[in-house]
């Protein structure tokens, strides 16, 4: 997947390289330190129609304007929700073309990892660990990578990072 | 003295005896596979787990067993493996008060449908307590098994929460929000993915709680009621809309964040 994205001109930063298990906040901190980044969380679910993939975006978050000008860490995703939905729909569209039975649009869910991410963020869930043959999942990997890469490419022209004052963000 | 000698067995009786033994061995040979099969079947019968036994002990009996039977709607999996739910109507003698009524329907939901494949909640999970706050927030406190036995994944965890929320919406009109606790504590996620630090919108048009109710209306006492950490857990939880209640995305082609990103506040460090 990293290769597929890099071939499309994207820089890829992985939040884990091996068996280490960074916390939700550690992963969000890595993503939030980037500028103009999108965040993609990928995992294999326990249920679902085998051979399909679903994209989730964060469901609505309460808007709580901060008086001190800071974005609350716990609701960092809130300003990015429209962008995340647009990005999620694009990736889901490409996944639906590849994997029959996958939904046509992204779905909203209260995904913990996405809540603290200050960037367009999606979670891709592949179905499922319940398959008898692990090769079924392995064979899906190139298609998943291609769909995400195409989604990122399609989303890039729509993603305009708002101009901010120098020093406003790390 | 010469001891008396037993007279030799008559050949005819010896033949009878050998014949009887042979028949006994033959019958035993036929019966052993039957016994083995029964033993195997007995092994397959699920034993009552500690959590299940506890549920039976803490399960409250219907508040008004002789009262009017209400057609309750419970939401279990539709079986389509796409996370969709299907309402099932069951006649229950439901209480009128929202807290015991909520506890009744959630206990029935936990007991599961006839087809175990359509379960949305783990069979070992126990509803330890169910509270109603004056603002219409329902607090459902489940045992550890809810977190440890729910299959990990966004779809499965979402389905579990959806089935609870939809069942409450259909049967307890006073419930506006839902907060899920695990063993009396707020937890980060249900089984690794779904955020449980938030409250879930159940019914935006919920019936207001009756004014005569106590500030916190509890269901019947359970062991966990004694040390209810409700206040602290709920106050810190932000109110949020339920999954799927998303606002329509902006129509413009060029998208920018809704608010200009500023500095990020550091994550709150838990002591």
Question: What is shown here, in short?
Answer:
The complex is a heterodimer of chains A (170) and B (271). By secondary structure, chain A is an alpha/beta fold. Chain A has five helices and five strands; from the N terminus they run ααβββαβαβα.
Describe this structure in words.
The complex is a heterodimer of chains A (about 170) and B (about 270). Chain A has about 170 residues and is of the alpha/beta class. Chain A is about 35% helix and about 15% strand. In chain A, strands 1-5-2-4 form a four-stranded mixed sheet. In chain A, α3 packs across α5. The longest helix of chain A is centred in the last third of the chain and has 22 residues, at about 135-155. Residues about 165-170 of chain A have low confidence and may be disordered. In chain B, the strands form two sheets. Chain B has a five-stranded mixed sheet. A two-stranded antiparallel sheet of chain B has the order 1-2. In chain B, α3 (about 100-110) packs across α5. With about 270 residues, chain B is an alpha+beta fold. Chain B has a domain at about 50-235. Classes of the chains: A alpha/beta (about 170), B alpha+beta (about 270). β3 of chain A pairs parallel with β8 of chain B, so a sheet runs across the interface.
Query: How much helicity do the residues of chain A have?
Result: 25-40%
* Number of discrete helical segments of chain A: 5
N-to-C CA distance of chain B: 98 Å
Number of helices of chain B: 6
CATH uppermost class of chain A: Alpha Beta
Please indicate the percent range of residues of chain A in DSSP E strands (runs of 2 or more). Answer: 5-15%
Taking pLDDT < 50 over at least 5 consecutive residues as the criterion, the unreliable ranges of chain A are 163-170
- Placed side by side, the strands forming the largest sheet of chain B appear as 6-5-4-3-7
Characteristics:
heterodimer, A: 170 residues, alpha/beta, Aminopeptidase, four-stranded mixed sheet, 5 helices, 5 strands, 35% helix, disordered C terminus, B: 271 residues, alpha+beta, two-stranded antiparallel ribbon, 6 helices
